[in-house]
Amino acid sequence: MSEQTAIIHDIGYRHYDGPRLGRGSAARALAVHSLRGVFGLGRTTRAKIIPFLLVAIMLLPAVVSIAVMALVKQQGIGYTAYAVAMQAVLAIFLASQAPYLVAPDLRFRVLPLYLSRPVTVLDYVGAKLVAMTAALFLLLAVPLTLLYAGELLVDLPEPVHTREYIASMVAALIAAALLASVGLALASFTPRRGLGVASVIGFYLFTSGVSGVFFAALLASGHEAAAKWTLLINPFFLVDAVQVALFGTEPSNGEGYPSGPWPALILLAVIALALTGLIARYRKAASS
Amino acid sequence: MTILATEGLTKRFPRVTALDRLTITVGTGVTGLVGANGAGKSTLIKILLGLLPATSGRAEVLGLDAAAQGAEIRRVVGYMPEHECLPPDVSATEFVVHMAQMSGLPRTAARERAADILRHVGLHEERYRPIGGYSTGMRQRVKLAQALVHDPRLVFLDEPTNGLDPQGRDDMLALIRRIGAEFGISVLVTSHLLGELERVCDHVIVIDGGALLRSSAIGEFTQTTQAIAVEVEEGLDPLAARLAELGEAVAVQGRVLTVQVRSEATFDAVRDAVCDLDLNLVRLEQRRGRIEDVFKEPAA
């Protein structure tokens, strides 16, 4: 038996006279807490499986590509095509994690506890959006950066693709913002996580399916210009189209996209619509 | 010292008037807010937290205007809602730490405060387990802990004894008493049961249909129905008859005689009657009038 080395004294209730930070700090803490939660950190082991598996899958093409570069001195997957090539993985990540960020607080009515504190509805929604955007951005940016580091180290005969790398990083941020706003808006309309997952993945399957079918049908019937427009229904091609418009990169599908500012305007409109829906949803939840 | 005050506070919803020209003042200590379900208690708390705009009138909490300075109020006030509000898959510790951070405490301070307050509300080893497996009593304690973790100056407790068994009810009431007395945090606690609040409150406010019915210190409530219980070995009926002759209000309840105290003379009358009849007195005690009785009177 060990000797008794410590005694617990009941010192009664102690008041707190330390610092009380403002709204901003609380919102930042919520964003960090949410971002960690998206990757399962601070949650159960089960909650870590899916995000970590998807992170590993996202890294796979970059790792293979670096190996290819090292062995045959040839570039593997391009930076600007990464997001489009991995769109299904990104969509699954969004569908599995966006409901986690919004549904439990609605379902278990935790929201009133947040709102009885200095944070406002907009702070809350903003923190969740920042967390989801940051998570999706990291999911793309880490493999892209790894790929870039690999290219620098391998020393290919052709010049380093710095411009493509920067373009792909900006596009990753745009994609993250678009997916996060749409994903959170869709997930917030149901307090049940399962339904949230289904609605986000359903949205992706629907838009990519519709876009693919129309594109093929219109192309076959000779309406090439119209076919290009239908590509934009798929959010990943929409972001790629904006990337092409902004940086003049190679389109990730063979046909190219409608030129001009339209893809960017459509993208902004979709984000605005999603945010409007999201905020309206939370204003309603807050007043009930 | 005035902790909160409302003046002509009115809240109309499209279908109902939740608060109707309510004017109240609340001082330090534990204050009970009593009313039937739907009397406007929760609406009042939401307005005081600055979460709901009033239709007319004004409300002030800790000297801050509820309509304009809601954010400042929410920094120094705690709120325990009536409804379930806990996520099942996190532990009480994690949840309370998170809520402390949401109140603006830095992370290390949040951890310390959460550990402290969970101990004070009586959650020990179980605080590391997910909340999903907790009993109703434990959940109520977690809800209370998140309302106190940032050391507020005032805490709103909305029906904290709801759904608790008698033992849990007693524990919760004792805890509320401690918050007011030992922690030095003012409490506004709502209930639809008057009897409970009688045990812990310094002051009781009764609202009905959104309007003030009565507001007074707990002593005043009980004074009006002060009564004494008399128990004698035998001869309860002659004693009752004698006292009734003297004009006292008496009632036989089983083996106990309840005598309403009209003045000091009532005590003398009881003493003399017992002596004169040569009875063996078993018990003579003050019976605290229950506040329910008071509110039956104006209603009748």
Q: What does the overall shape of chain A look like?
A: globular
Total domain count of chain B? 2
Strand line-up across the major sheet of chain B: 6-7-8-3-9-10
The tally of helices of chain A reads: 11
State the domain count of chain A. 1
Tell me the name of the CATH class of the largest domain in chain B: Alpha Beta
* Mean model confidence by pLDDT of chain B: 88
Largest sheet of chain B: 6 strands, mixed
Question: How many DSSP helices of chain B?
Answer: 11
The number of E-state strands of chain B comes to 14
Sheet having the most strands of chain A: none
Shape of chain B: globular
Mean of all residue-level pLDDT scores of chain A: 93
Which parts of chain B are unreliable, with pLDDT below 50 for 5 consecutive residues or more? Answer: 296-300
* CATH topology annotation of the largest domain in chain B: Rossmann fold
Largest interface: A-B, 35 and 38 residues
User: In percent, how helical is the residue content of chain A?
Assistant: over 70%
Q: Strand content of the residues of chain B, in percent? A: 25-35%
Structural class of chain B: alpha/beta
How would you concisely characterize the structure shown here?
The complex is a heterodimer of chains A (288) and B (300). Chain A is mainly alpha-helical. Chain A is built from 11 helices and no strands.
Please tell me about this protein's structure.
The complex is a heterodimer of chains A (288) and B (300). Chain A has 288 residues and is mainly α. Chain A has helices at 23-38, 45-72, 82-85, 87-107, 111-115, 121-154, 162-188, 193-220, 224-231, 235-247, 262-287. Chain B has 300 residues and is of the alpha/beta class. Helix content of chain B is 38%, strand content 28%. Chain B has helices spanning 41-48, 70-75, 92-102, 107-120, 136-148, 166-181, 194-200, 218-223, 236-245, 264-276, 291-299, and strands spanning 2-12, 17-27, 30-34, 56-61, 64-65, 77-80, 154-157, 186-191, 203-208, 211-217, 227-232, 250-253, 256-260, 281-287. In chain B, the strands form three sheets. A six-stranded mixed sheet of chain B has the order 6-7-8-3-9-10, with helices on both faces. In chain B, helix 3 packs across helix 4 (107-120) and helix 4 packs across helix 5. The chains are: A mainly alpha (288), B alpha/beta (300). The A-B interface holds A 12-16, 18-23, 25-26, 29-30, 33, 42-44, 104-105, 108-110, 112-120, 286-287 and B 49, 51-52, 71, 74-75, 77-79, 81, 83-90, 94, 98-99, 101-107, 109, 113, 116, 120, 146, 150-151, 182-184.
